[in-house]
Amino acid sequence: MSFPRYERYKDSRVKWLEELPEQWKHASLRYACGRITDGSHFSPKSIEEGKSYVTVRNIESGKVNVEGAAKISQEDFEQLEKAGCRPSLNDVLFSKDGTVGKVAIVENNDFVVLSSLAIISPHPEKLDSKFLFYFLQSVNGEKQIESLYAGAALRRITLDAIVGIWLPLPGLYEQQTIITFLDYEITKIDELVAAQQRLIDLLKEKRQAAISHAVTKGLNPNVLMKDSGIEWLGEVPQHWDVTSLKRECSLLKDGTHLPPPRVAKGIPLLSVRNIQCGKFDFREDDTLISEESYHTLCKSFIPKPNDVLLAIVGATLGKVALVPDGLDKFHIQRSLAIFRPVTRMNPKWLNFVFQAQKFQQLLWAHVSYSAQPGIYLGTLAQFRIPLPSLTEQNLITSFLDSETSKLDTLITEAKCAIELFNERRAALISAVVTGKINISKLV
Length: 443
Hints:
By secondary structure, this protein is an alpha+beta fold. The protein folds into three domains: about 1-10 and about 15-25 and about 170-205 and about 390-443; about 25-170, Adenine-n6-DNA-methyltransferase TaqI, Chain A, domain 2; about 220-385, Alpha-Beta Complex (Adenine-n6-DNA-methyltransferase TaqI, Chain A, domain 2), CATH 3.90.220. It contains twelve helices and 28 strands. Strand 19 (about 275) and strand 20 (about 280) form a beta hairpin. Helix 6 (about 170-215) packs antiparallel against helix 12 (about 390-435). The mean pLDDT is about 95.
């Protein structure tokens, strides 16, 4: 489908904007905005109830989730408000540290912000906040932002860089026409994305239900059952054993608590981040350690193919994966526990047991909290799990391999659809806010 264009264009002479409609202006945020600052550079003490302070984590889908924000005292709130850390209505919040580029428009300003967020106040006679909101999400905006990154370990963008961001500046009436068009079109795309996300959630529920039923009840619906004597298991097939992890694993340890020094080239020291979608693999940004440090860690154990890895520290506690064949040598950090089943247990069986919903609930019921959630190895070792014969384990794991593969394919297809919708979203925003489409001929 071809869209109407403006009659004449001009070269903006700005790399990230390229050509713009002849009648449009363009400017830096320094010109188009009154105030560009950031939030507090110190973290006030959190309390149970009080005033809200917001970080990048509270920016969700273009809005500020104040309900999920931490709370501070009235005194700290007033101090930060005086320091300029409270945004005004219709200000644009822009994440400048860590997850750079998340944006939201302030619709309720009963909060202050920390330094991970920039507060941008457009001049109302020059720039509509919603137009800026859309431009910062455009391909042109995102590429310009990426070119301004500072920092290696933690991506960030400085306030000095933010004020130098260039954007198109059509007249206010035309900005509002563009906003109306994008609000309508983007809502339709977001609804399609939400539908695919609901499908993914349903498929994941179905996947987990299939695993949970198979590893606790088996595949024969007519089998005689018995009380396992274990609260989380309930009834299991009468001929199954119930046994402890420490009895069925020849190796049950966690990774190093004292990571060796990093090196530029060396052996990967992996963590829970290396478990993605049930698979364990290397990443481009893995921590590397020296050969000497690796051999020191190997005095405790050497990871092998078909070892089962379980995340035992952090917000993603409970993620699980098998060590695949053919993976080059590596070692693990303390966020992972490693299990090596004895001969009467198929490692795939243990991998599926760990994924069962009731086992995941058991894990979290025994979590201890300090800086982050974690579970002790001694606690894990005592957990009791179901154990059919090796022949039946193999039948069940083959069944689950087939069933989960089908569901994983559908999940992947839905994720691809979301990716395509989001690409379409960004492309549409870019085309409209840079004048590649003449909206006045469409509305």
